[in-house]
Design a protein that fits this description.
There is one protein chain. By secondary structure, the protein is an alpha/beta fold. The chain folds into two domains: about 140 residues, 3-Layer(aba) Sandwich (Rossmann fold), CATH 3.40.50.2300; about 150 residues, Rossmann fold. The chain has twelve helices and twelve strands. A seven-stranded mixed β-sheet has the order 7-6-8-9-10-11-12, with helices on both faces. Helix 1 links the parallel strand 1 and strand 2. Helix 4 crosses helix 5 and helix 6 runs parallel beside helix 8. The longest helix has 17 residues. The protein starts with a strand and ends with a strand. The mean pLDDT is about 95.
């Protein structure tokens, strides 16, 4: 019986994470791998906590798996600290070359390969989109996780494009729920504000809280994935991350059959989706421009 370790950056009770895990397991099953029959799958959930990530990374490595699926950039550092030999297939990771996880996209080198979330250039489009749908916004708070390299990188790109769209940006460093609530509340005390939610495991853990805070303080918000908009957020622009998990199963299958992660190219999304929630826009008193609606891949009435 072969062994697969799985480490998630998010919480086990998150329905989005559960859907992604189901897609991964379904992909494995289609390739002939059935949990409890010819493969054992050990799953751990870091719940947006770096201490948990370190503990579970070390725990999974001691189980001597044949390969580990890692979902989320925040857990890749702890995993690579725990092992440089166990093959790792990652998903939902931003800029794996720039953050030093791999040597290159076409030939990753080392023991990790997988599926990147987006290139940093995408982040600048979030601020431009915020200004387009809410022209009155002159201030934007970027909710990011400063403990991960991509949290720093995403904010840097957003900051670099801010002068060109006439918006002052500041960072809100995400911690626990109380910290997020205090920081967003303080930001909302001044007028003409908006939010950008940068990609991180913490953002996923606090998805419902962030959406409710944007609603409570009447802040237009741009998100990085459509699940936020489906849950009541205003607008998102980014990849459909569910699409990474069946291909991730194929990479796990190939490694189990003898291929090396160093020779499997890292794959990037070939499409980014825009999703708009018109009900939320109406509640905020916004009229979404026709040019934005024409570009949208999905409009929630």
């Amino acid at each position: 019986m072969r062994r697969i370790g799985v480490l998630w950056a998010t919480s086990e009770d998150d329905p989005v994470a559960q859907a992604r895990q189901a897609a991964f397991l379904q992909g494995l099953q289609q390739l002939g791998w059935v949990n409890g029959q010819n493969v054992r799958i050990d799953v751990r959930w870091a719940a947006g906590n770096l201490i948990n990530a370190r503990q579970y990374a070390a725990e999974l490595v001691t189980l001597a798996p044949d390969v580990i699926l890692a979902s989320g950039g925040a857990i890749m550092g702890p995993l690579l600290q725990a092992t440089r030999t166990v093959p790792i297939v990652f998903t939902i990771v931003t800029d794996p070359v720039g953050t030093g996880l791999i040597d290159g996209l076409s030939r990753p080198g080392g023991n990790a390969t997988g599926f990147m979330m987006f290139e940093y250039s995408l982040c600048g489009k979030w601020l431009a989109l915020l200004k387009e749908i809410a022209p009155g916004v002159t201030r934007a708070a970027v909710l990011r996780d400063p403990a991960i390299a991509s949290g720093i990188g995403q904010f840097a790109v957003i900051q670099s494009v801010a002068p060109s769209v006439g918006v002052d940006v500041s960072s809100v460093n995400m911690g626990d729920a109380a910290e997020i609530e205090r920081a967003v509340g303080a930001f909302a005390r001044s007028a003409n504000g908006g939010l950008i939610v940068a990609a991180s495991g913490l953002a996923q853990v606090h998805r419902d809280l962030i959406i409710s805070l944007a609603d409570r303080h009447k802040l237009p918000a741009v998100y990085y994935e459509p699940e936020f908009v489906a849950a009541g957020g205003l607008i998102s622009y980014g990849p459909n991350l569910l699409n990474e998990f069946r291909p991730a199963a194929s990479y796990v299958d190939r490694i189990l059959k003898g291929e090396k992660p160093a020779e499997l190219p890292v794959q990037a999304p070939n499409k980014y989706d825009m999703v708009v929630n018109l009900k939320t826009a109406k509640a905020l008193g916004l009229v979404i421009p026709q040019a934005v609606l024409a570009r949208a891949d999905e409009v929630i009435e």
